[in-house]
C-alpha cells in the first residue's frame, strides 16, 4: 500500500514539473505574442514568420489582417498570425553573433 502512495506522489510531481518546465513557458509566450498582435499599429516595424522585415501601414482587426510595406511602394496584405515579432535590429544582431559563436556583448572590452 505505501508503494502505491509513493508512485502516486511521484506521478503528481512529474506532472507538476512538466507543467512548470514546458506548458507554463509556452502559455506565457503565447500570451505575450497575443498582446503584441493586438497592440500592433501603423508605423511598427515587424518580422514575419517568413523572415521578411517590413513596416505596418494599416491594421484591420475585424478581418485579422495587416498591410505591411516590405519595400518602397510594395505593400502586401497578410494575416496577423503571420507576423512573428517586432523588428529590433540590435537584438537580431546579438542573436546572430551568439548563433555564429562570435563574442557576445559581455566579452567585448569597454572603453
Salient structural properties:
elongated, alpha+beta, single chain, SH3 type barrels, five-stranded antiparallel sheet, 2 helices, 111 residues, 2 domains
Could you characterize what this model shows?
There is one protein chain. With 111 residues, this protein is an alpha+beta fold. It folds into two domains: 1-39, no CATH class; 41-111, SH3 type barrels. The protein is built from two helices and five strands. Strand 1 (45-48) and strand 2 (53-60) form a beta hairpin. It is elongated. Helices cover 44% and strands 26% of the residues. The longest helix has 37 residues, at 2-38.
Topology:
Elements: H1 2-38, E1 45-48, E2 53-60, E3 65-71, E4 74-79, E5 83-86, H2 89-100
Antiparallel strand pairs: 1-2, 1-5, 2-3, 3-4
Would you kindly provide a brief summary of this structure?
The chain has 111 residues and is an alpha+beta fold. It has helices at residues 2-38, 89-100, and strands spanning 45-48, 53-60, 65-71, 74-79, 83-86. The chain has 2 domains: 1-39, no CATH class; 41-111, SH3 type barrels (Roll).
Amino acid at each position: 500500500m505505501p508503494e502505491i502512495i509513493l508512485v502516486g506522489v511521484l506521478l503528481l510531481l512529474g506532472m507538476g514539473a512538466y507543467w512548470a518546465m514546458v506548458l507554463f513557458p509556452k502559455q506565457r509566450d503565447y500570451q505575450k505574442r497575443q498582446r503584441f498582435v493586438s497592440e500592433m499599429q501603423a508605423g511598427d516595424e515587424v518580422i514575419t514568420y517568413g523572415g521578411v522585415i517590413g513596416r505596418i501601414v494599416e491594421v484591420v482587426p475585424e478581418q485579422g489582417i495587416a498591410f505591411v510595406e516590405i519595400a518602397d511602394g510594395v505593400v502586401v496584405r497578410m494575416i496577423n498570425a503571420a507576423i512573428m515579432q517586432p523588428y529590433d535590429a540590435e537584438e537580431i544582431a546579438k542573436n546572430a553573433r551568439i548563433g555564429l559563436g562570435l563574442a557576445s556583448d559581455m566579452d567585448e572590452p569597454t572603453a
